[in-house]
């Protein structure tokens, strides 16, 4: 019936061109009869899957950056209230430290560093898990790690000592991280 109508665009299905949308019909049109379509070998399908994976990765990065920025805002508010030291550490707080440092033009955030060191040394919150402490250690500076080691050893030496009584440890770890680390090792040896 299509062929009889003037100006008709109907075509015989056998002569209709294949669409290029997913690659599959194009591939089947040029394949030998009996060939099984495998999307794993279809370049178009693989390109689409790659684009979807890249978009998902970008979305995850954006969500993580938003989470870090929100936690950094929370830290800033807690600082202003003078209650940062009462905050329970969470996963990713090492990145929050980095964000605060970036916002401050690269200046060290001494209060955040001291809070992180205390949380790690006392195994608070998220840092109760040894794997979390190990992961944090790979993300923090040598001065913070020296501070953590020194705080841990001093707390073992003088049980019940307050964080405010150990403020000198932060100064030592910041200015002389190697010396602070060596002192922590010495105190650990002296204990055993």
Structure report:
The chain has 192 residues and is mainly alpha-helical. The protein is built from 8 helices and no strands. Helix 4 crosses helix 6 and helix 6 packs parallel to helix 8. The N terminus is likely disordered.
What is the first-to-last residue Cα distance? 98 Å
Structural class, from secondary structure content? mainly alpha
- Output the radius of gyration: 30 Å
The ordered string of helix (H) and strand (E) elements is HHHHHHHH
Quick one: biggest sheet?
A: none
Low-confidence residue ranges: 1-23
What's the helix count?
8
Give the overall shape.
elongated
Fraction of helical residues: 55-70%
Average pLDDT, to the nearest integer?
83
**What is the total tally of β strands?**
0
Tell me the fraction of residues in β-strands, as a range: under 5%
